[in-house]
TrEMBL record:
The lineage of its organism: Eukaryota, Discoba, Euglenozoa, Kinetoplastea, Metakinetoplastina. This is Hypothetical_protein_-_conserved. Residues 489-511 are annotated as: Disordered.
Length: 602
């Protein structure tokens, strides 16, 4: 039914809850659905709808800044739909009924139009692309490697509840063992070697097109990124200490105001360790403070052993709850999640740098005065010497062919030309050669941050974008995007000649400006996704059932038979707009009811 239809979606805050909503943890789809995330049966999960979409032949492409955890949070829950695990268990049951005790025979035949869809996992901010293998090949390999894999174990939820429909939960059905990721998934290696945009603007290190198209960084660039990441954390903690008057007891409130929950206590304790390690010293050179902070001395954490490179790189050393490293160099793993020696590094993620302080931690070129390089702003108070070093951070990274991307609670350093749209460009380019059936008019993109990290996914009309942003409304989000587009255009005009400006008048408008016509705001993060998919896919399946009834009643008509063979586009603009409107209204009503219940309980 959904063959040729694509969902291209961000993960955190779009399919799965962010750690802020999940009490500092990274949770799977099924766990959230089973526990209700504190909302009980009223919690909306997109898991049953994603399974339905895949079972009916749709293609799901998940694009995330996350690395290996994309596997653990998504794959096991989607495998039953990808590999027909219910049918595998049924085949095992039939064999057991024969009483011969032999492993199941060959896979039962299936019409190509009824085959399940494909899952693409594009992690590391788009630097590596993995895909699910055809279900027949997976069955064959599992029969060889795990002869009794089809014998049902614990029941898996089914996306069909015959009694009350999807919205009231899932029924449990017997299913075979979930195939290990090493059997079920494979990396599309050519993507990593050729996927990055060639000669990306601003990359001073792109000596030739072959180098510039690599999506991963070399050893030297990785070492630089890790060092710059450590220095960024040093500057942020120096500023935090200054703002708190070097009183660790006040630090938790500061971190609570700018970072998600998992950092609050951890960073307050870390600052206490840093202050115990160093002596407070007066600022050197230049009056870079003002007002009530003028008499507060600075501290320098640059030589701190607490923030040693080894400690920052160790997973779970500081962030034990989620197992993250504060400076995380993320290599591209094998399909089974293991990492080979010497594996290429896709990105370096610096955890705990708030988006609101990004421009101070990594000041743009020219933002600091040459006479006083430590003062990136009147309200920024890190060690003057460290601030001076930080003023050149962007230049050093750009010279190495790296790009900085600010995220709500972190900063990602990766190769130029790699972003969340890289896989979309690649899939479009490979569409005909690999028969991907990827048409933008039959694709939907989803994200909770269309004004920043998800903005690249808004740039492919007629592919429509569903905004799940919990902040403000559609008008405010689109206004942010519009302002960014205007600012970028104005900046370009001010630095280029009149001939270039004249040429730009005949070029296509900036993609972010265009995106307003293809964007629909639902809000509600991953619950908004669930409500939208319920409206869209539920309506489509109901309509399809009605069509099938009419076709069966008029089976003798050749015209009806011809109509049945036609491919239907279920993702038309009118249908998407109507579903988004209904989903947004339902999400707003649910949030209002939750607020009222919370107020009544207090």
């Amino acid at each position: 039914m959904f063959r040729g239809h694509w969902i291209v979606a961000d993960m955190d805050g779009t399919l799965t809850p962010t750690p802020t909503r999940a009490h500092g943890k990274y949770l799977t789809l099924s766990y959230c659905m089973q526990t209700g995330l504190g909302y009980g049966a009223r919690y909306k999960s997109c898991l049953p709808w994603l399974r339905l979409f895949l079972e009916c032949g749709g293609t799901l492409c998940v694009v995330s800044t996350a690395g290996k955890r994309v596997w653990s949070q998504l794959y096991p829950d989607l495998a039953p739909a990808l590999f027909r695990l219910g049918a595998a268990a049924a085949a095992a049951g039939a064999t057991a009924a024969d009483g011969n005790g032999a492993p199941p025979g060959p896979s039962p035949p299936i019409d190509s139009s009824d085959a399940p869809g494909t899952l693409y996992l594009c992690g590391f901010t788009g630097a590596a692309l993995f895909r699910s293998r055809p279900w027949e090949a997976v069955w064959s390999d599992m029969d060889r490697l795990h002869p009794h894999w089809r014998v049902p174990s614990a029941p898996h939820p089914s996306p069909f509840d015959e009694g009350a429909g999807l919205c009231n939960g899932e029924t449990a059905v017997a299913a075979a063992m979930v195939p290990p990721a090493g059997v079920a998934l494979e990396e599309w290696r050519e993507y990593r070697e050729q996927g990055a945009a060639p000669d990306a603007a601003g990359s001073q290190a792109a000596a030739n097109s072959a180098v510039s198209r690599l999506a991963t960084m070399d050893a030297a660039a990785c070492m630089l990124a890790r060092d710059e990441g450590r220095q960024a954390l040093v500057r942020f903690f120096e500023h935090a200490s200054h703002v708190c008057g070097h009183d660790a007891a006040r630090a938790k409130d500061f971190f609570a105001a700018c970072l998600s929950t998992k950092y609050h206590s951890v960073f307050a304790d870390l600052l206490q360790q840093l202050l115990a390690e160093v002596h407070v010293t007066a600022p050197h050179g230049g009056d870079d403070t003002s007002g009530s902070d003028a008499g507060t001395p600075h501290v320098c954490f640059a030589a701190s052993n607490v923030l040693s490179p080894a400690a920052l790189a160790q997973h779970g050393f500081f962030l034990q709850e989620t197992g993250d490293a504060l400076v995380d160099a993320q290599p591209v793993p094998r399909a089974d999640g293991t990492v080979a020696d010497g594996a290429a590094v896709a990105q370096v993620v610096v955890m705990g740098i708030p988006m609101q302080f990004f421009d101070q931690v990594f000041p743009a070129v020219g933002s600091s005065s040459s006479d006083n390089p430590s003062a990136t702003s009147r309200s920024w108070h890190c060690c003057p010497r460290c601030a001076a070093a930080g003023a050149g951070a962007r230049q050093r990274l750009e010279a190495a062919g790296l790009e900085l991307k600010s995220q709500p609670n972190s900063v990602c350093l990766h190769r130029y030309g790699v972003d969340k749209a890289t896989c979309v460009r690649w899939l479009l380019a490979q569409h005909e050669q690999h028969q991907l059936m990827f048409e933008l008019s039959q694709a939907l993109a989803f994200g909770d941050m269309p004004e920043s990290v998800d903005a690249p996914l808004t740039a492919f009309p007629p592919m429509q974008f569903i905004s799940l942003s919990p902040k403000d409304g559609a008008a405010a989000r689109l206004a942010d995007i519009e302002r960014a587009a205007v600012a970028g255009s104005t900046s370009a005009d001010s630095t280029r000649g009149g001939v270039v400006r004249q040429q730009q008048q005949h070029q296509q408008p900036r993609c972010l400006s265009d995106s307003a016509q293809n964007m629909f705001h639902v809000g509600g993060e991953e619950e908004g996704t669930a409500l939208f998919l319920e409206e869209l896919l539920g309506g489509c399946t109901s309509e399809q059932q009605q069509l099938q009834v009419r076709r069966r009643s008029a089976a003798s008509s050749s015209n009806d038979a011809a109509d049945a063979a036609c491919v239907v586009n279920w993702f038309t603009a009118d249908r998407v707009a109507a579903c988004a409107t209904r989903a947004r209204r339902r999400m707003e009503e649910e949030l209002l009811q939750r607020q009222q219940r919370s107020t009544a309980s207090t």
